[in-house]
Specification:
This protein is α+β, with helices and mostly antiparallel strands and about 575 residues long. Helix content is about 55%, strand content about 5%. The strands form 3 sheets. Strands 1, 2, 3, 4 and 6 form a 5-stranded antiparallel β-sheet that branches. A 4-stranded mixed β-sheet has the order 5-10-9-7. It has a two-stranded antiparallel ribbon with strand order 8-11. Helix 5 packs across helix 6, helix 15 packs antiparallel against helix 16 and helix 16 packs across helix 17.
Amino acid sequence: FCGWSLQLWWPAMLESFLAVTRVVAHHAQTRLAEQVPGLAQELDLPQRQRFLELLARGFDTFVHGLVRATAQDPSLLGSSGEASSASVAAPVISLGPRPPQAAGEPPGPSAATTRADDEAFAEKFAKLFLDMGGIFPKLAQVLSMRPDIIKNERVLIRLRAVQEQCKQMPFEEAQALVLRESAVFREGQLELRNWPEFVHAGSIAQVAPFVNRRESGVESEDRAPDGIVKMTFAKMREVMAVDFRLLRFQLAMMERTGHLTGVAGLVALHPKHLGKLKEVWRLMAEMEAEVMAEFDLRKEADAQERGQHLLEGLLGGSSGDCAWLEEWRDGALSSVLRPAGPAVTGHALNAWHAAGASAAGGAAGRGSGARPGLVTRLTRQAFGGRAVVETLAAGEEHVNRLRVALRRLQVEVPSVMREASGEQVLAMSLAHGRSLTEVLDVVAHGPKEHAEKAAAWFAALLMFVVVPLWGKMLLVVGCCHADPHPGNFKVDCVPGLEEAMSPASDSSALPPPPAPRRGLLSRVTRGGGGSAPPIKELGAECPIRLSILDWGSCVDLGDDIRQTLC
């Protein structure tokens, strides 16, 4: 009966399906022909549907926003000449008061009004990248690192945050994906968890936590996950593939016709602005192979294991025992302090070397060698006065604290769990701590004391750890992690930073901190306002940990490229 029914009804069902498909295609082509006549016959069905979606989500507004963001002075946009024709051509939403068009007109808005408007524009423009989805969040990440293209500083700051705000796929789809891709998850040994604190989405992938059901025992609400799963979705890959085809078509259209796809309101773009748009489109088009390769997480698993071995080889298991890194740090500190003069630089470097020798000799816990001798202190009192003595002493304490912390710092790469990974699933150990993006949020928006402390530690990690590591990978080894944005770093056990990251936490049990004069190094680097605790309070049992994530864009550089970089 079933066979007879299929023979009878299947041709009719297939014909009905094809008829519906033809109707949808005809409807999309008709709508596109009405809005963009030049494209109606030149795009395939997925491209037509995607372009209509982009138009509905504000593609024309995005293009005009890109013109404003790439202008040398955003306030000049809309003045006589270049941009005025584009702004008159269509009723595009445009944030920002227009400056005077000619002499004799009323004065322009105040500086405060202009800043507020510019901030509102930056926020709206960054949101458009998220709303349009597809390749646009990735484009935001790329443009955030190109101040030569994006001239508006507020836009650059907002674009850097887009990578951390991408839309998440539903948890049910993520769960179905890991069950389909990984036998370990299907057998129930590992189980995905929908814990918002650990669920994040980027422009390509999404991460979620998991627990090991065989080893974890009884669960509690405040327990930490046993690891993290990174996932890529076929649906997102298909959208990006269509976007890249559409982007290449638009590039060809601009070359052929001299305007952008005939969209109403964008035809009248000034050639200079059209050139900027083509520059951005080419930049993204050149990254197609690299971006699409990121969807295969097997390549990233190989690169992550390679990065783990690379760092072990460079650092020898501990950054404090690495001769080349210590040499770099000595030179870097000297360069940073040079504007303060030779006397200040000399005092700080002496304290730096004393702390290094103390930590290397195992005396960090007692603090021996950290404080200057009695004769030295009496001499400073005699020649410099009490205030100079206190400043130098506090400065040396900051130097000691930084040096000991850096010598115990551990740089890690999460371990890959091969048995639970696949083409679209990458299971790994958990990287503890907070991302450097969160640290920068405290710098930008936190109370002054917390912001200064977070800024000081961020600067120290950048100057004494990240920059020398990337320099070594780029110039010496020729194998390098090529996506070092702040979200790809996590830091844990930094003294005092957790309090700065959680200003609302209860600290009533802690004694009130003293408030002496700010230290020498603190003044030079704009570090924390309070005095540093004695070195022994750092605790050898909790070294700073810096985890480096997302090795999917690891690159190999030939000798010619490394010599050029040198």
